[in-house]
Specification:
11 helices, seven-stranded mixed beta sheet, alpha/beta, 7 strands
Length: 274
């Protein structure tokens, strides 16, 4: 199967640095529309959908492959291989895709020059006292049980939690969750919410910008601070927003932070080679 068709890969722009946008659980590449438009004239932008999400080919879904984050790492790397991208890529990732990207960076150390991580969380489950991920395991099990017995109710609940408040973003997310295939959604949900990748953080050497909304139930500030402490080349920036989807709720802040970080990274690279 053609990878570009399988993952519904969309490219815009032919010149400049490559920005690879990776969506989070229950969403698709279209969540980036307000952000990616700001970079299409100066960068080569690449968007894709994980198998089981968005407009990816549903025939490619395999429960065994996509029951762990490793299957989504393979999707990301296979998209890059199909586009002949082996270095110089800037990953722009949201939520669980931040973890997927970090895992991919360990397999391909030269692939990403930098990573821009929106609302990252290496583990959603609390492990007190050293780590507060935001949820007790029982709470997440209850969420998956709700998904099995009342898919629409689950979508409405998670949409409002992820948005942080009632309004257009919550409605948008609920609609996206409802349109996801329930079997694929359950596999991705379990892989997302019960994965614990804290142990890989010290191994990640790719420079990272962590963008965190000041109020986010799914990835509290303590998680962003934990990542900043354990990622050796990281910068933490707190945005003045609510909810887990800053690229949807406050895209202008995300764009400004990205532009500033990319400009600093370019200057630093020039200084090293000058």
């Amino acid at each position: 199967m053609d990878i570009l068709e399988r993952n519904h890969v969309i490219q815009r722009g032919k010149h400049g640095p490559v920005l690879l946008f990776a969506h989070g659980f229950g969403c698709s590449q279209t969540v980036w529309s307000d952000v990616v438009a700001a970079f299409e004239s100066s960068c080569r932008t690449v968007l894709f959908d994980y198998v089981g999400s968005g407009e990816a080919n549903p025939a490619a879904f395999d429960v065994a492959r996509y029951s762990t984050l490793g299957g989504y790492v393979q999707d990301m790397l296979e998209v890059c291989d199909a586009l002949h991208l082996s270095s110089g890529v800037t990953l722009v990732a949201h939520s669980v895709s931040c973890t997927i990207g970090m895992m991919a960076s360990l397999q391909r150390p030269d692939l990403f020059d930098r990573m821009i991580l929106l609302g990252p969380s290496p583990c959603f489950v609390n492990h007190p006292p050293e780590y507060i991920g935001g949820f007790e395991r029982e709470d997440l099990e209850d969420l998956l049980t709700l998904m099995e017995h009342n898919f629409i109710g689950w979508a409405e609940h998670l949409g409002s939690v992820a948005a942080g408040e009632a309004g257009p973003v919550a409605t948008n997310l609920t609609t996206r969750f409802c349109s996801t295939d329930p079997v694929a959604a359950k596999a991705f949900a379990r892989a997302t919410f019960f994965s614990d990748q804290r142990s890989i953080l010290p191994q990640v050497t790719t420079p990272c910008l962590i963008l965190q909304n000041q109020e986010d139930v799914l990835a509290p500030l303590a998680v962003g601070e934990y990542l900043h402490q354990h990622l050796v080349h990281s910068t933490l920036q707190i945005l003045e927003g609510r909810g887990h989807c800053a690229h949807m709720s406050c895209p202008d802040q995300v764009i400004a932070a990205m532009c500033a970080y990319l400009a600093r990274s370019t200057l630093m690279a020039s200084a090293r080679t000058g």
